[in-house]
Every structure is written in structure tokens, then in C-alpha cells.
Amino acid sequence: MEGLNAQQVIRFQNGVWTNAAASPKIHIYDDRFVTENVLIGHHINVDQRRNLYGLVIGAQGIALKQNVDSAEVTLRNCGDSARDAETKVKGFLPHGQTVESFRNIPKVADVDQQINSAKEMLAAASQTKSKAESIRQRPALPLVPIAKLPTNLTDILASTLDETALVAEQKIREHLHAHSDSLDLHWLGHGLKAKTGSGCPFCGQSMDGLEILRAYNAFFAGQLQAEEMTRRTLIKATHQSFGEEAKSRIRETFTLHETECTWWNDVAGFALNLRIVPEVSDILAVHDAAHRAIIEALSRKQANPANPTTLTLVEQQAFEEWELTSAALVEYNSGIVNINETLTQLKSDAGNIDLMPLQQSVTFLEASKKRHQTEVIEAYAAYEKALHEKVAAQSQKDAANNALRDQTNTLLAQYGNRINDLLDLFAANFRIVCGGSNENYVSFSGGQPSGQLAVEILGRKIASSPGDAADPGRPSLANTISGGDRSALALAFFLAQVEQKPDLAESVIVFDDPFHSQDRSRQNRTIERIHALARQAKQCFVFSHDLDFARAVSPIHGVRARTFLLDPLTDHTYLESKELPMLPSRAYEAKYQELTAFIANPANYSNQLHTIAGTLRTILEEYLQLKFPLRWTGQDYWFGTMIGEIRCATGDDPLIRCQGIVGGLTEVNEYSQRFHHRTTGATADVPDARELVTYAKQALSIIHQ
Predict the structure, then answer these.
(1) What is the Cα–Cα distance from 548 to 570, expressed in whole angstroms?
(2) Disulfide engineering: 490 pairs with which of 38, 70, 481, 520, CB 3.0-4.6 Å?
(3) β-pairing, 575-577 with 55-57?
(4) Phi-psi region of 513 (alpha: psi -120 to 50; beta: other; left: phi over 0)
(5) Is 220:165 a contact under the CB 8 Å cutoff?
């Protein structure tokens, strides 16, 4: 108070301001300002959403909104009556009908007779439709697989070889047996192909006139090997065409044809006229005989490759019978192709049945019968009367709504753009936009806002309606705007107002916990705006329970700022001017350095032994808080309770890893308690320096683990 005269001192005492005439204008942002200036997501139980306000900003707007709510009472009572009448009408609604569509259904003469006739037609068409769907989805009939006799069988059996090639093979094998360690003919063939001149390709010795050279040339001419390969290839192909898998396919195909004949006849009433063929067992017997005949003829040729092989009479008969059977199967498959073409047309025709008109006819006739029953007629009459009364009540409410709309238009024109700019600065994911049916952004500097406010979140407009507010699964202002968003909007409105005050330079700005419900991402921007006002206003006060926020907001470049602390444990009415406490990490670092220095030179701390003893307990508390920051949330934890939590830790609790140091923590805790809760006078407990060193080392040893 030094340097101030009595005219400059303004005091609030006993509920009264002294020297109030000299008081500057005071603008306060606090919880009360938020409550009195931002109304979000209220629930209105009316059907007419015209002029519905999901968001109201400004104390005057909220006062006008109270007038709307008063008018709403009358409208709500009428709305309740209308809903009751509508509920009764809805109890009579057939499936698929609305109150309005059911109201306009005309009366039909002889309705019962027409309903019976329409149902009979629908039943007949439904049965046909069911068959048609099955027909449409039925697959085509497969063809019977037919194996063909090999066209080159006769040529292979009739082929001959020069006798010298066979004799040459025997001589070569004897020569290799006598002069090598069982070399094979394949290796020898490679050498002969690579030979140039008349010398031996293996030793270089001249082979002119040698009998073995003639044998080489005769054998490796290639004909013997080529015909051997041809026979083997034919045998393999024969097994594939006439083997067990081929027989199974024939058998399965005929079985499927029989099944399809039964299905098409029973379900669709269509007979499949399959061509007559021999019994499946007879077909397979001829199939087997042809198979054996081919293999046996080739086996004889294999045994005597140099001479022609003649088919036996049995083999010739087997081939002839298979040719006749194959011809019959070809004719059979031709009939299957014709049947499939007919079935394709049947499927196309059957899919054109449309049941919808018949179903609609039955539904309409039944609805007409119900609509013109006496109790339904009376329910609609009561509903019409309730609607008329509700419209009259709505007209009474319009005047109150118009006043609120006009005030909102004025507020938006003056502050709307700035509010949205500030919301952008605060990294809010919403903006104030026009409500109603207008899907465009509000242009506060031009055009006419509707007066109805909503917010736009991530590009989507969110307003409040009875249906939205009643259903938690649907987005509304009530469930999409958090407390932090509401505070951010209130702060933006407060700043937009104060910034335009003509007497700002002579005003006092007060922020009471402006950040207590804000998102951390908005902290720096909030501080920037506070600093900006502090530079323009006569004086600015910031109150906060958040020590981190207080540290961040206190330094203001170019402005003299002072910090004050209130200690509720001593005097909750006294603010003491002092520096803010260090950050927890800095305090921990200071204690660590202090203990380290004490252990190195105990004599330097002879007058601070009690302080060192108390430090043992607090440094271990802060160590555990820093090591497990998420584990100590939700309540205040002291060192003793921390030790208890560690001792009882189980499962995935991270504290379970500290159970090995519980004993050491307990010893340090019990020792430091002697001085933390010390007495005074003759009974005072004074720490022994040498003993204290041992416990200080133990505390640091625990931290070092």
C-alpha cells in the first residue's frame, strides 16, 4: 500500500466495495462466466424443430432462452397430448404405413371378398415363384466322358527293327561288362555323339575296321530308343483314358443324370428324355476290355520290338465293341446338349415371375379394411384436435424464439468471426455454424445467419434435437461437446468481448482457473491470449490450482509480473508473494545432489542433520513417482502407502518388479520417521551423523538399482 493515497485504494469488505466510484471496469472469466454465457445441447421435447436452439452464447441470449423455455411449457403440454393421440393412432398402423399415409387410404367396397381373392392369387404365384427360383439355380447336365482308341496303335504294333541293332546292343553290353565297371549305354551314347574322326572318343585309339565300332553305329542310330519311348507314352495315355478314374467319371455322370431326371420331374414337372444306351455295367465292361486289349498288345510288342505284333481275335473284338459303344455315347451326349438348351430357356422364363404387385394388393386391401373401422376413425379425430391445439401453442412460442434469434444474429455479427478464429487458435476441432437447413458455413460479416446455432465437428454439423439427445448412439451437442470444449468456447467468447472493449486499457482482467478443464494442446494458445490482454489492460490477475500452468503463464515478456502462493494448511485467505516451487524433477535432482554431497562430507552438514534425515523419505517418494508416474494416480500416496502397494503387487502390476527392495525401503522409512515426526525439548531425537550416512548410502543404493 506504500505510495498509494486513500483515493487509489479500493477495498471489498463485509460484502461492500469502498471507493467504488474509483473502481475500474473488472472483467472476470471463471466457472460462473461459463455457466452464464454458454448453453449447449439442451433437450427440447417438441416435434417442431423450427427455431430450435442447440447452442446459446451470451448472458442476454441465455436470459432470452429462459423466456423461450417458459413459452415451451405450454407447448410441451400440448405436445404431450398430441403425442399421446399419435401413439394411439400408431397402435393401429399396419406394417409399412405412417400416420399420414394410413390417414389417406380410401374405403373399398366388398373388402373381405377382395382380400380372399387377392390372397388366393398370391399363394398360387408364390408356389410358382418358389419352383422358378429352384429351376433358375439348377446347373446344366454334364456330358459323359468318352475315351478314344489310340490312333497310332496300329503303326506301333506294325513297326520293325533291323536285327543288327538288337545284336549290336548285346555286343555292346558284353563289351562294357568286360572292359569297364558297369558303365551304362547312356554314358556311351554321349561319347559316340561327340566323336570326330575315326579315333575312339574315350582313348583316342584308331577304331577302323573294329567290330565294336559297327555295333556302336548300329545301336545308337536311335530307332530302338525312340520306339521304346513311343510305347511307354502310349501306355501311360491309355491308363489315363481307360483307367479307374475314367470309369468312375462315367459311373458318376450316369448317376447324376438319373438324379436330375427325378428332380426335374418332381419339382418342375419337366421330363428329361434321355436317349437309350446300354446299362452302365455293360458300358464299363466294354471299356475294361478295350483297356486290357491295348495294354496286352503293347506288352507283346515290348517283348519283341524287332517284329510286327498282330492283334488277337479277342483284342479286335474288344476294339470293335468299344467303337460301337462310343458311337452310342456320342449320340447320348448329343441328346444331353439338346436337353441343356431346353433347360436354359426354362430357367430364363421361370425367373420373370413378379410377386410384388400381388403382395401390394393384399396389403392395401387389409389396410383399407382396418383404416375404416370405428375405433380407428375416432383415434384420428382425437389426433386432429390435439394437433390443432399444438399449432396454436407453437404460435405463442414463436415470438419468444424471434427475440432470441434477433439477439443471436446481433451477437454473431459482432463476435462470430473472432470466436471461430480463437477456436482455431485453441486447436478446437469444432466451429460455430448456422443451424437449420442451411448447410453452408456461417458468414458473420455478410448475409443473414438464421439465428439458430450449431457446431461443426471435423466437417460435420452437429445440432441438438429430441431424437439426437434421446439416442446416445446419435451425435448431438449433448454428447459431442465435452466440458473442455464448452470452456474453450466460453473463453473464446470472453476474449472476443473483452478485446473490443473501448475501456480495455483502464480495465482489470481476472482469469480464475482458465485452464482447469482445457485440453493440454490448448495451453500455449491460452497463455498467449492472456499475455496479450495483460499487455493491453490496466491489470491482469490469473488464479490457478495447476502449478504447471502457473509456471507457464507467469513469465510475460515486457510486463512486470508477480507470483503469489496460497497455503490452505496455514491460512487459506492469505496470498504470499513468492517464487513458484521448482518442478518435481528439479526438486528430485536437488535432493539427489544434496545426499551425494552429504555422504562425501558429513561435517559440512552438522547443523542440517534433521533436514538430511527427512530428505531420505521424500527422495524415495519422488523416485517412485518418477519411475511409475501412471501408477500413483487417483489418490495421494505417501511413502508408507507406496511400500504397502509394492508389497501387495501381483499379476501385471509394474510394482511387482520392486518387491526385491521392499526391505530396504521399509528400513529407510522407519528410520526417517523418527525425525519426520520428531518431538522437541529433552525428548527430541537427534540424528547420529555416522548412522545417517549409512541410511543415505542405502537410499541412493536403492535408486541406483
Answers:
(1) 22
(2) 38
(3) unpaired
(4) left
(5) no
* Whole-angstrom distance, CA of residue 198 vs CA of residue 213: 9
Burial of 401 (0-12, 13-18, 19+ CB in 10 A): buried
Give the separation between CA 89 and CA 83, rounded to whole angstroms.
10
Pairing of strands 539-543, 508-512: parallel
Q: Please name the residue ranges forming H helices in 18-96.
A: 31-37, 59-90
Cell numbers at 663, concatenated: 526391505
CA 580, CA 563: separation in Å to the nearest integer?
7
| Eight-state DSSP code of residue 203 | T
300 close to 153: Cβ distance less than 8 angstroms: no
Lookup: cell for 411 = 451477437
- Distance between CA 230 and CA 93 in Å, rounded? 83
| Of 612, 599, 617, residue with least CA distance to 697 | 599
Residue 106's contacts (CB-CB under 8 Å, 6 or more residues apart) are 368
Cβ count within 10 A of residue 242:
23
Q: pTM (2 decimals)?
A: 0.43
Contact 541, 511 (CB under 8 A): yes
pLDDT by 10-residue block (mean), the chain, 705 residues: 55 76 84 86 44 69 82 85 88 87 89 88 70 82 92 84 57 66 58 57 58 56 69 87 90 92 79 88 92 89 82 91 92 92 81 80 89 88 87 83 83 86 85 58 42 67 60 66 82 91 91 74 82 90 82 79 76 76 69 89 89 88 83 76 90 88 91 68 69 91 85
Task: Name the burial class of residue 478, with classes exposed (0-12), middle (13-18) and buried (19+) by CB atoms within 10 angstroms of its CB.
Answer: middle
Q: Give kind and range of the element (H or E) at residue 134.
A: helix 111-137
* Interaxial angle between packed helices 523-536 and 483-499, expressed in degrees from 0 to 180 and rounded to the nearest 10: 20
Q: What number of residues does the chain have?
A: 705
Distance of CA 519 to the CA centre of its chain: 25
Q: How far apart are CA 205 and CA 223, in angstroms?
A: 28
- Contacts of residue 248, defined as CB under 8 A and 6 or more positions apart, other chains included, come to none
d(CA 253, CA 333): 11
Per-residue cell: 456: 461443426
Q: In this structure, are residues 292 and 243 in contact, taking their beta carbons and an 8 Å threshold? A: no
Q: For residues 158 and 495, give the distance between their C-alpha atoms in angstroms, rounded to a whole number.
A: 110
Query: Is residue 80 within 8 Å of 342, Cβ to Cβ?
Result: no
Neighbours of 85 (CB within 10 A): 21
**What whole-number distance in Å separates Cα of residue 453 and Cα of residue 430?**
13
DSSP secondary structure code for residue 509 in this structure:
E
Could you give the C-alpha distances from 80 to 52, 155, 236, 396, in angstroms and in order?
18, 102, 89, 17
CA distance 635 to 232: 89
The sheet with strand 460-462 has its strands ordered as 430-434, 453-457, 460-462
Beta bridge partners of 461: 456
